[in-house]
């Protein structure tokens, strides 16, 4: 997992062949002007969400990770707290892996929580189990699904 500000996004371009294109888009686009919905950026699926934040307990019900994609989650507005645990420490899968949605849920609880402010991002690799959308008020974010190299 990586947490930083969009102003430093270019520093991560060497970590994955598509990170440069993702961060070029993120830093050259008026994210506040984006409408809720799905779009594609340089072959990567992208979704803009704007929803009311939930409690940590509610978010933990969808404690998730992905096998085939890396998430770059950018907070556009609001304040968002997320739960996190290394996948190697999760022992209680909740159902089967869904290959169509590239998601596996766990019944485990996050070992830690952190908070993002507008203009910050987190990169979740397949080994990062996460519980997003924790907060009070409306959270607007953009998620880029980067295919695992």
TrEMBL record:
It comes from the Bacteria. One of its GO terms (cellular component) is cytosol. This is YhcH/YjgK/YiaL family protein. It comes from Mucilaginibacter yixingensis. The lineage of its organism: Bacteria, Pseudomonadati, Bacteroidota, Sphingobacteriia, Sphingobacteriales.
